[in-house]
Amino acid sequence: MESIQAIKQRFGIIGNDPKLNRSIEKAIQVSPTDISVLVTGESGVGKESIPKIIHQLSHRKHGKYIAVNCGAIPEGTIDSELFGHEKGAFTGATSTRSGYFEVANEGTIFLDEVGELPLTTQVRLLRVLENGEFIKVGSSKVQKTNVRIVAATNVNMFEAIKKEKFREDLYYRLSTVEINLPPLRDRKEDIHLLFRKFASDFALKYKMPTVKLTDEAVVLLLKYRWNGNIRQLRNVAEQVSVLEQNRTINANTLQNYLPNTGSNLPAVVNNSKSEGDFSSEREILYKVLFDMKSDLNDLKKLTMELMKKDSDTDIQKDNAHLIQKIYGDEKDEAFEAAVEDLEVLSIPEHTKETSEETLSHLTDKYDFAEEIEEEETLSLHDKELELIKKSLERHGGKRKLAAAELGISERTLYRKIKQFDL
Ligand SMILES: Nc1ncnc2c1ncn2[C@@H]1O[C@H](COP(=O)(O)OP(=O)(O)OP(=O)(O)O)[C@@H](O)[C@H]1O
Ligand SMILES: [Mg+2]
């Protein structure tokens, strides 16, 4: 008997997974018999190679092998396709035609997607399975055939039976032996092996160097769900081989070819990302406000010094209301209102702690800046008052002389006297 490795090579089956090997072994074992086989497994797992192995290793190998996709044939013509029809059986039936069961006599029929068969066709099929008998559409003559039937399905047959879409007796007839092919995600060892094989096939086909995966990309390849199994893996290998200029494929690049990679990540990653964005956005806002406030303080100090140095009193006089507005009320209402606004922003419960911390940290900083400013203003105020007092004393209360000594106009001095209540 041919070894399992030789069979795999002959039928182009890649992989060393024990479950895959077991399935192939089963196919080899049942091949010399006429037992009906039902091949099960998800879409794209490679079910189609099993009936080929069974046929080729059986005494029927010189007979016909016909694969029928039961899901692809319209309901109205499937009986005629499978069992044939008599001339005039229906409109367009211009001549008698043999069906697959007649043609495949002494051979094998592979009924792919058998779960899709209409119930009426299921009755006809059951009869063939039980005694090899069938009747052409539009005929009353019973014919005999000797056909080996291998069926395949990617749907849950028990559910189909429960929903009365599939006959239970037919199911047991078809599945005397069931060969199940494991999904790709349960064949981790084979995933990279298959990718390398497909990549080298496509490199040859498209005359390009073979793509190679980085270690991280291999990890991603193994972690992926592969709902489309080997068919999907081959498509990904083809797309990457054709579309990527750089022949070394990293995880980021590979991710672009794997749909729903995001949904494979824990949901918490997404949540914490948005929370992080939210609190960092608030921090940026606070920082901008704080920076603006400290810039404003610097500007005030600078203007104050310039005003003091400048003896041109007209500037002060002409801008008196502005000076009053800027220096008169040291509380920055706009800033405080903005901070308040930020505080009342609806903060999700889980971020509240962080934002309150940030807020108190920033307002501490802000208060601190205010203190420094107040201290300095206070000392300036004191010094100014002291200077004016001394100058007035020196000149016997004569404002004109005092103003000249202080380098300010008489009017400014007058205003200062009133302001300081001298
Ligand atoms: N072990 C394997 N090694 C190499 N190629 C494979 C292997 N298994 C499957 N393939 C390839 O993957 C593709 C899908 O396989 P196949 O058509 O047999 O899937 P299926 O199980 O019949 O899926 P569906 O239920 O959708 O019909 C085919 O091109 C097949 O050649
Ligand atoms: Mg198939």
From TrEMBL:
GO biological process: regulation of DNA-templated transcription
One MF annotation (Gene Ontology) recorded for this entry: ATP binding
Highest taxon of the lineage: Bacteria
Residues of the Sigma-54 factor interaction domain: 13-242
InterPro entries reported for this sequence: AAA+_ATPase, AAA_lid_NorR, Homeodomain-like_sf, HTH_Fis, P-loop_NTPase, Sigma_54_int, Sigma_54_int_dom_ATP-bd_1, Sigma_54_int_dom_ATP-bd_2
Database matches in PROSITE patterns: SIGMA54_INTERACT_1 (PS00675), SIGMA54_INTERACT_2 (PS00676), SIGMA54_INTERACT_4 (PS50045)
Short name of one Pfam family: Sigma54_activat
Keyword line: ATP-binding, Nucleotide-binding, Transcription, Transcription regulation
Record protein name field: Regulatory Fis family protein
Organism: Winogradskyella arenosi
